[in-house]
Amino acid sequence: MATKSKPKEKSKSFESTSMDVSDGEDEDFRPLFIRNLEGSIKSKETSPTSTSDGRRLESGDKPTTPRRDVLKASYRNSPRIFQSPTTPGQLESGKYENRSKAGDVVFRYNCKDSSHWENMIKSETSRNLKWDIINTNPFNRPLLKINSKYMFQRTREMSIVLNDVVSELGNSVVEYYSLDTPANLTECTAEDEVYIGRIRSEGKLSDGSILFEGTMESSLGHLVSLDMSGVEEYFIFPGQVLGLSGKNNLGRCVQVSQLFIPRPFPFRQARISINKTTGPLSILIAAGPFTPTDSLSFEPLKDLRDVIEKTDPDICFLIGPFLDATHPMLQSEDTVLLDTFQEIFENELQKLSNRLQDRRTKVILVSSWKDAHHHAVFPTLPYSIKKFSQIMAISDPGVVSIGGLIFGVTSTDILMHLSRNELAKTTINSDRMGRMARHLMAQRNFYPLYPPDESVPLDIEFWADHARMEVTPHILILPSELRHFIKDVDGTVVVNPERLTKGISGGTYARIYIDLPNDPDEENSIGNGSPIADFVMGEIIKI
């Protein structure tokens, strides 16, 4: 079977590129490969009679080198594209245009209506305030830079890095639960002993395939199987760091009697500047991809720009991918782009920047390894963008401080990946999505699953340095293919806005509203001692 090549990009210098980056709301979405010459192109291209070498085409043959005589068209609502007449397509998505219930609120958290957002739009006091955004980083390590090197990994170095992560979190378990010094897994015991390590599995995790790897310090990395029949309830997954107590039979199998799960970091004690004087903080959250699967236009992103202009939120999180590298049209050898992936991305940013003029909204771009124009590595480097006054780019995962509140975000679908790999034993129905989010905070990691999902291009050293949490976020943003939600998980507000597009139709985005009753003179108060979740309202809305 012949493999299909990636779409071809026509190379051209930046200086020679002439692009109209206006939104063009009155433009139609017809394919941009020369609207005014559609007839002539079709007449020349749809009925070729011979190949470039002079051989006459028989019935059913295709020309080996289709013409690409395309005039330079202005870049408007869609990427400039040439589609071979032998496989006609469309740039606009009819299904997306005909979607139902656009703008409907499909989920509410901690509120009965949208009056808070409506009142904020009308408020002149809050409209004049612009919040400072501080890009923070776990463990004060250097921020992930756009010129960082990755995937230079040796097996020995990977094992050392992984062991360091397990040991550090394992030591916190021993300290929190006041446990005895961890025993050696290679030694047989008739009495219960304490062990520290991580869950492993050969294949999919099941009751009969639970493995446990000890740390190098305590057990020289020794691997044993676990008999969990004596534990009434557990929720485990590959890569999970934990402590356990049990009898070690012949140094091969531990009969587990108790599990010791790590505890999340406490919330950071810092001055919260959201108070009665500043007014509330409004945030809009949308996750890509921003194109339907039957189109290369950015119609959903255009509609989102309209929402931003109308509602004027303080902060907008735009989470990649912007143009998914696995987009069906990008996989077709009959699709030839006249703009590079980077140019397509930059043009959409320019349109957004134009709409932000005279607005208070600041946009935070969260990168994705799925983007066609970006580095395919996780953790993912920030997007390389030119300087915009109201747009900033952060890595995936990323942590920012806004008004003293900590926001954690990742574009990688860890909720889906964990839910596929978790092994649960429970006697009662529990909040599954809340439990997935709790795993992240307990493991102090934005992606605690190891080995990662087969789709994730994980760099172990990047992961050790840039995927861990130093504090528990007040707001944790986890976009996923799983159903949208906003919920309180142990005081942290976890938001899954889902995706702005779902296949060939529109998806959803989220907005939250944070209104703290603090007095401006109170240094470290969140609602007079109450958790932040009590003062957050949220909605999930269809685009």
Describe this structure in words.
The protein is of the alpha/beta class and 543 residues long. 20% of the residues lie in helices and 22% in strands. It is built from twelve helices and 25 strands. The chain has helices at 38-45, 94-97, 115-122, 124-127, 155-177, 216-219, 299-311, 328-331, 341-355, 414-421, 432-443, 460-466, and strands at residues 8-9, 81-83, 105-109, 133-136, 193-201, 210-214, 223-227, 234-236, 241-249, 253-260, 281-287, 315-319, 335-337, 362-366, 391-394, 398-402, 405-409, 423-425, 475-477, 485-489, 492-496, 501-502, 505-506, 508-514, 536-542. The strands form six sheets. Strands 3-25-24-11-12-14-15 form a seven-stranded mixed β-sheet, with helices on one face. Strand 22 and strand 23 form a beta hairpin. Helix 10 (414-421) crosses helix 11 (432-443). The longest helix has 23 residues, at 155-177. It is globular. The two termini are 40 Å apart. The model is unreliable at 1-5, 10-77 and 83-90 (pLDDT under 50).
